[in-house]
Amino acid sequence: MTETATEGAYPAAVHGEPSHAPEEVLDEIVERRTTIEQNVERNEGIVAAIYQNVQRILAHHQLRPEYVNELALTLAEPLRFAESRKKLFENNIVVLVADADCGRHHTAVALLAQLDGVEPREVRREISDNLDLGALEIESNKGWLLDLRGELTLDDAFGRHLFAFRTQLKSRNSYLVVVVPSALWRRASEGAGDIAVFLESVSAADIVTAHLRYSHIEPGPYVGDEQIKTYLAHAGPSEAVRWVENIRSAESLEARQLPGAQQNDGPEDAQRHRVELVLQLHGRWRSELLKWHQENTGSRERHFLLAAAVLERLSAGLVFTTSMKTPHVLGEDEPEARGLAGPGILELVDVIGARLESDDTVSFVRPDYANAVLDYFWLDRQHLRTEFAEWLCRLPIELADDKHLSGHTRHVVQRIADYALRWTVEHKNTSLLWQVIRTWSQRSILREVLPLLLTVAALEESFGSKVREEMLTKARSSSETPEVKALIADVCGGDMAELHPTAALYRLAELAQFSDEQVTAAVTRSVERLWNIPSLRRRLTKTVAVWCSSEHPGQRQAGVYAFLSLASLQAGDLQIPELLSGDLETSKSLFDECGQGWRAVFNLQPESEDRVGAVLYLWVRSACVVPEILEPLQKILHAAVSGREGRQVDLRAMIYFNNVFMIGDRTRVDHISPEFREVRDKIAEYIFARHPQFDVLRQPVVPVESVGTSPHV
């Protein structure tokens, strides 16, 4: 079975962007893992955690063995799991019909894990691809997951086709698990026989129990606690997983480290403290912080708490001096002070419930307390949100500009990036994310974390679609900074392209329309990365050809610049265009796509004739180096200038083609080699002989003897 159900491209959406379904499920995943340019090994802690978020999302679609094994061992089996397994074994196919919060993906992966000697794989397709089971080539001993959670519609005969597909699966000892929403299945299930199972939701308590047992944690003291039990009774699967994370955090602490622990505590006391800690983590320490603020009304104490939350694990002196500045930043001009200008470091550290470590750094005793403090401030001081966000963004810049404090810059950048990402996802709001990106993109030491930050935001399952839409808006905007555009281009050539290749290419096409050198270089790097994923090449060329032939002006223009980016890629020492570098059969398969690309170029006539001329020169020169390319190149360019079948040749397109084709003659003639000119004349003769009405456009050729290299290369 191939990784792509079909090779079709997105149909045009309202504004020229390829259409896509809601972000309940990510689309395509390719085999090759692109390495993010961020050097993760150099950045420990927070950046490593962000990197792990990216890897978690990729593992969800790549079905890596460790991921499949974990899901199999943490499954809280739904009531009809045994029936699902029986139907899969008997029919080699089962359809899991369920809506959100039923553990559909988890159940499907766990079913595939039950198949001995069968490799789990995901059917790789993008949401709006045509779903044609007949186009799937079946590989032996594979267990395929076809995830249709994000589909908007299915063919009425889909169920009948699935039922017939069993024979092909059985012949190769392969299996297929389909996940589909109930509303879609009701419309497409006719003729499917008895291959479907309607899943029911599993209780949050059962989910927590399964995960804790996998982690070798006794679930009883937690799921049996009356307060936790009340919460779990109304929780869905995603919230249940958050409870598991909180319990694991509590279990990771030694008894003496637990908040409220006493020296003479016994095992029961320690367990009681753990349960209390889990409840506090669930409530984000809100009740504890409310009580603290009611008891501590002093300006110095409150600002020291806020500074420590941002600068946790940095020197107490830095926290102290920062806390002296924040009152002015946040509009409190005259903070009160007492003897020796107010409380000192030791007093303030004690008041906020933190700890002064042996290396004079400040850290909180309570787990995740720093984030809770920032969340509390955001809610409690809503009128100061603008000033607070500006301060967060500027703080690393102020540190970088201070030679005595610049060593702390990277730590603060990572800390604020982590908070901005978490805030973005939880609040479903990208304002802080883009404010951080725009502010930090101007400084190299601050830029390092940005590709990783934007990547994980763009791939986040519940909110990534909004981030990607805004990436498109900013890619198109003439007012956006080149630094932000270059960042978007870099992200589109990284892990985002593995899950959303068409969307990544579309954004790169929009960015390719800007002449800034920084943006152009980033677009070139990313397009090359996409092309270097072999399984994506046919999708890329076919998608770009569809855009170039689109009736929507915006999409067609994006297609032109995407095509020029692909057409400018060079292969090997001979520097042959990548699109022409395969064997003859491969080149023939690209004739139509290349013809459509050049046709759109000649029709839309991009403003930069020099750029078009440089790419066209590269193609003509390739026929000098490899003579076998001449014939297909003649046919490609003839098809491009001839236009679509049944239509008259566009005079404007022919004039533009002639101008860029002869652009070298407007430079020093000794830069054009006799070999190049001979090949170019053969192409011109081939085209104009078939369109004699335009022969008057042909320019006379001045013979030259010197051999040189075109300035366009």
Outline, from the CA principal axes? flat
Backbone CA Rg? 31 Å
- In percent terms, what proportion of residues is strand? under 5%
Say what oligomer this is.
Answer: single chain
The residue-averaged pLDDT reads 84
Strand order of the largest sheet: 2-3-4-1-5
Largest sheet: 5 strands, parallel
Helix and strand topology:
Layout: H1 46-62, H2 65-73, H3 81-91, E1 93-97, H4 104-113, E2 119-122, E3 142-147, H5 158-164, H6 166-171, E4 175-180, H7 182-188, E5 196-198, H8 204-214, H9 220-223, H10 226-232, H11 237-251, H12 267-282, H13 286-295, H14 299-310, H15 316-329, H16 345-351, E6 354-356, E7 362-364, H17 369-380, H18 385-400, H19 409-427, H20 431-440, H21 444-447, H22 450-459, H23 464-476, H24 482-492, H25 495-499, H26 501-511, H27 517-531, H28 537-548, H29 553-567, E8 570-571, E9 576-577, H30 584-604, H31 609-625, H32 630-642, H33 651-661, H34 674-689
Descriptive keywords:
713 residues, mainly alpha, 5-stranded parallel β-sheet, two-stranded antiparallel ribbon, 34 helices, 9 strands, 5% strand
Write up this protein.
Helix content is 55%, strand content 5%. It is built from 34 helices and nine strands. The strands form three sheets. It has a five-stranded parallel β-sheet with strand order 2-3-4-1-5. A hairpin with a 5-residue loop joins strand 6 (354-356) and strand 7. 42% of the residues are buried. Residues 1-22 are annotated as: Disordered.
Brief synopsis:
The chain is mainly alpha-helical. It has 34 helices and nine strands. The two termini are about 40 Å apart.
